Amino acid sequence: MTGRCAETLAIGSELLGPSRLDTNGSFLARRLGERGFTVRFRTAVGDDLDDLRGAFEVAIHRSDLVVATGGLGPTVDDLTREAVAGLLGLPLEEDPEVLAGIEARFRSIGLAMPPRNRRQAEVPRGAAVLPNLLGTAPGLLLRHQGRTIALLPGVPAEMRAMVDDALLPLLGTTGERFVDRVLKIAGLPESEVDRRLLDVHRDRGPVEWTILALGGQIEIHLRQKVEEGAGAPDVERLDAAIASGLGAHLFGRDDATLEGVVGDLLLRRGASLAVAESLTGGAVARRITAVPGASRYFRGGVVGYSDDAKRDLAGVPEEVLREHGAVSEPVALAMAAGIAARLGADWGLATTGYAGPEGGDAAHPPGTVFLAVAGHGVSQARGVTLPGDRSQVQERCAAAALDFLRRALLGAAT
Amino acid sequence: MTGRCAETLAIGSELLGPSRLDTNGSFLARRLGERGFTVRFRTAVGDDLDDLRGAFEVAIHRSDLVVATGGLGPTVDDLTREAVAGLLGLPLEEDPEVLAGIEARFRSIGLAMPPRNRRQAEVPRGAAVLPNLLGTAPGLLLRHQGRTIALLPGVPAEMRAMVDDALLPLLGTTGERFVDRVLKIAGLPESEVDRRLLDVHRDRGPVEWTILALGGQIEIHLRQKVEEGAGAPDVERLDAAIASGLGAHLFGRDDATLEGVVGDLLLRRGASLAVAESLTGGAVARRITAVPGASRYFRGGVVGYSDDAKRDLAGVPEEVLREHGAVSEPVALAMAAGIAARLGADWGLATTGYAGPEGGDAAHPPGTVFLAVAGHGVSQARGVTLPGDRSQVQERCAAAALDFLRRALLGAAT
């Protein structure tokens, strides 16, 4: 594996505490993978000089490429430069060009450089400077006994830009790269996805295959190592086989989202949407409006938490509520049709049910949910029972509702 | 620092890929901290025997306590037992009691134990077994040259129960513990919180102080190491000083949320709430309904993304929309009063504005937002400009709206 093993080092005492996660590592894993590096270790370490030196020593010993994020700021807590320079026996020298850049950056926002920021111009002798277009801390790249060590700022936007603009081009190529593909699936439990893809999985060849269940949807992550410049025929073959095995349950790839796919379908049909939610409490509208430009097709929605609200906001007839109860298929259908009519939308989407822990009865325990879609002559409802605690039921129900609408839009004439 | 340095090892190749974060480490950091252990390193490593041995070797060398999660399952990918037994030169032996437990667990759900689960009964000689009441993989505890090594399952619920029920009691006490306190602040930018607490921070004494800005609110994390059984007088002193410096901007501690605090205030007043949202697109309702039992005070809400929806759902008069435009203080006020009246709620809360990237004009760029509260004779509106991209503006606006309502409820007679 020589020449291709990477380790990421996330630096900062807050990363060791109860309340922070290292999100930079996920980005690095993806980008380094695209260049053929395998991340074998991912370490977080605090702002302590001895611990930092120790972590770098271990990382340099076991990995060809070490990418550290954080600890390059101007404060006394920022010790990454010192730790690496000390470990490798390199003096820290002020770089006049870097200093001029930091001063210019402050001038551009009408400020004089605070004296403490001068530290950020210190560079271990022989290190290459990676410019930071978004902040003051430059990145540094060192080569040591065949190893490559990159020191990057911890601010995600700065780190990401620096990786793409400066680090990856300097790393050159390993002659190989990883091709990653994520296939996104809705409307099937993981066990059923497994069952349908048994043969496809068996014939996966050299492709790594990971299946994840996340908030009401399933993801299959494929990864294949290929020659630089070559395609990934096995990934393409598996993609096609999964698509054929799952049909319309496969809703997208890579960064696709259910709300984005639904938005595209509505835009393509020149159609508009309104939603009426009960137990999801705004989660469906929240996801729809997370898409930039949603105002082109989203008319609005209501959250009817009480019977009165379902009647007054979504136009559910009193007698339907009385006869069937709020958690029922007829009420879901009346909500979907009612909100579409009220807002003059082509499509209406509704959820009603018990999120728990309160509510429900023996026949309708928490997790009992009805979904409905109305539009273009279509009027469909569906009852499902969703597992999980309150927030899981709400999230899963929102995903199920978006998927229900997606299927209806696919079935309707364009 | 001997006797109190811990390292967490998260095991599983998926933890090195682009799409997974190690959430177990956060829980462990908190619990171990309460027992006086400092987590100094946090490492993720894949399902590779050599890498696992290497990671354990490094961890045992530099840490007194190593807590590993994952790799105890029944499949060939699960190599934690083998790696540790091999590294420490201990034979793996089948434990009849553990085997009987696994068989009984399968029997209880009407199944015979699959042959591959037999592996989970293998125990490195001399290891103590930590029972798993929620799954098949037992935990293991080993002592080696003064170090303690705990092997726990990676499933969060199983791991957490095992830590609390079995691991922590066995670790005994270090004679010291960490006291953690989180203070939660809304309605002030981080720089203003810093400015107001300059003197308090200077006199923080032995307390670690971290300030974080998260989605429209600020958190101050305090941590003090104290004797086992002793209180944390400096944490209490700082808590009181922060509360006095920030007044009502301090909305809660530790696990408190704005939506939870608002819910408590409404319950205490026996009052009900309705919301009308524009740019937040359901995010306010989503947060309110995330609280179990929200149906006791939340009547419902509307998401009025178009002028028509604002008029039809929230009852905003046509002439107010025409005269002032949808993104204006009068429209926000009309939305808040209108939705409260329509749903018969004591309080109405409204948001209107431009989330971006589209919409707005020179006078109202994306991020321009108006909030309004109506109820109990109160009718208040406020314009703010929020930084960030679309989703940040939406999140920050939802937080600002909840805080605006909180302040109005605090000001109103109970």
Count structural domains of chain A.
Answer: 3
CATH third-level topology of the largest domain in chain A: Molybdenum Cofactor Biosythetic Enzyme, Chain A
CATH-defined superfamily of the largest domain in chain A = MoaB/Mog-like domain
Contiguous runs where pLDDT drops below 50 for at least 5 residues of chain A: none
* Widest β-sheet, arrangement of strands of chain A: 2-1-3-8-7-6
Quaternary organisation of the protein chains: homodimer
Q: Kindly provide the name of the CATH class of the largest domain in chain A.
A: Alpha Beta
Q: Tell me the greatest interface.
A: A-B, 81 and 80 residues
Tell me, briefly, the overall form of chain A: elongated
Number of strands of chain A: 17
Mean pLDDT of chain A: 91
Number of helices of chain A: 14
Helix content of chain A: 25-40%
Distance linking N and C termini of chain A:
51 Å
Q: Give the C-alpha Rg of chain A.
A: 27 Å
> Main beta sheet of chain A, described?
6 strands, mixed
Based on the coordinates given, report the CATH architecture of the largest domain in chain A: 3-Layer(aba) Sandwich
Description:
The structure is a homodimer of 414-residue chains. Chain A folds into three domains: 5-171, Molybdenum Cofactor Biosythetic Enzyme, Chain A, CATH 3.40.980.10; 176-253, Alpha-Beta Plaits (2-Layer Sandwich); 258-411, Alpha-Beta Complex (Maf protein). Chain A has 414 residues and is an alpha/beta fold. The first copy, chain A, is elongated. The longest helix of chain A has 22 residues, at 390-411. Chain A starts with a strand and ends with a helix. Chain A is built from 14 helices and 17 strands. In chain A, helix 1 packs parallel to helix 5. Chain A has helices at 24-34, 49-62, 80-88, 96-108, 156-171, 190-196, 198-202, 233-246, 258-269, 283-288, 307-314, 318-324, 329-343, 390-411, and strands at residues 5-11, 38-45, 65-69, 92-94, 122-124, 128-130, 139-144, 147-152, 176-186, 208-214, 217-227, 250-253, 273-277, 298-304, 347-353, 368-375, 378-385. Chain A has a six-stranded mixed β-sheet with strand order 2-1-3-8-7-6, sandwiched between helices. In chain A, strands 14-13-15-16-17 form a five-stranded mixed β-sheet, sandwiched between helices. A four-stranded antiparallel β-sheet of chain A has the order 10-11-9-12, sandwiched between helices. Chains A and B meet through helix 1, strand 2, helix 2, strand 11 and strand 13 of A and helix 1, strand 2, helix 2, strand 11 and strand 13 of B. Strand 14 of chain A pairs antiparallel with strand 14 (298-304) of chain B.
